[in-house]
Design brief:
Shape: flat
Number of strands: 4
Order of helices and strands: HEHHHHHEHEEHHH
Distance between the termini: 79 Å
Strand order of the largest sheet: 1-2
Largest sheet: 2 strands, antiparallel
Radius of gyration: 32 Å
Length: about 270
């Protein structure tokens, strides 16, 4: 039997144990990322100013050699190879701008992608912290504080379903207990896909029952006033269930409710008379 891992090896093993990759949590370094972009931006702005100064010098100078180099790339390359100072300075500046712009644009794209990554759930972070810090921090140095700021963390795994139904299921879902480093059974793991599947089944069954129940109610009650009351009740229940059981936005809730309302016109017994 292999001895238990220590340090970074132990943390890596614990992170990799989660089948849903919810524990792939790392620092975002938003402050450093913003500062890095600001520095790259400042460098390019400085290079841009230098290029404008060279262009102004060419415009104000009557030397046709400089003007020819400004108009024709081959002439510029030839002058640079011959050691002409202005051509060498211009070529060096252009290359530096190209490299800086490439780095800046790549950093912008990467930061945009990172900004779209979701933050980890409090449930996962709390479990990670408990394992990480009990009975003492598994890592030393600055690394032992990397889970302290939840707002500065990013989750690499797929975002778990955050609907109220899923959250309720997670609270009571039977989980496989595993001992933390202090020997206590405080951390439980479960398959997030199963939770999402059960939540989906509950949502579908609820929607189906509301539709079928409304149809039976319309056929059962012959009084028109009572039918209107039943329609109002079912529409209200549907809208409330859609709001509480899904993550639908307001516009999506209105659209779903409107679609549900349209079914009453289709199944209204009065239409068949």
């Amino acid at each position: 039997m292999n001895p238990p891992s220590e340090g970074f090896a132990a943390v890596a093993e614990w992170i990799a144990l989660d089948a849903d990759n919810e524990t792939f949590i790392f620092r975002r370094f938003d402050k450093l990322a913003a500062r890095n972009l600001l520095v790259l931006q400042a460098r390019i702005m400085s290079l841009e100013k230098q290029l404008e100064a060279l262009d102004t010098e060419v415009s104000l100078n009557s030397d046709m050699t400089l003007k020819d180099a400004a108009r024709t790339w081959e002439v510029l390359v030839e002058q640079e190879a011959q050691g002409e100072q202005h051509a060498q300075q211009y070529t060096k500046l252009v290359v530096e701008i190209q490299q800086s712009l490439k780095e800046y644009h790549e950093t912008l794209v990467l930061q945009s992608q990172i900004s779209n990554l979701h933050r980890p759930s409090k449930r996962t972070v709390d479990a990670f912290r408990h394992w990480f810090n009990t009975p003492f921090s598994v890592l030393g140095g600055q690394s032992k504080r990397y889970l302290d700021a939840q707002d500065g963390l990013v989750a690499l795994g797929a975002q778990a379903d955050s609907s109220p139904v899923s959250r309720l299921l997670r609270r009571y879902w039977p989980a496989k207990k595993e001992p933390t480093r202090d020997g206590a059974l405080h951390i439980g793991r479960f398959d997030e896909k199963r939770v999402s599947a059960v939540a989906g089944v509950i949502t579908v069954l609820t929607a189906t029952n509301l539709l079928v129940g409304a149809i039976f109610a319309l056929y059962y009650f012959e009084d028109k006033a009572l039918r209107l009351v039943m329609i109002h009740v079912f529409i209200t229940i549907f809208a409330v269930c859609a709001a509480l059981m899904t993550n639908a936005r307001r516009a999506e809730l209105f659209a779903a409710t409107a679609a549900y309302v349209s079914t009453f016109q289709t199944v209204n017994p009065a239409n068949s008379n």
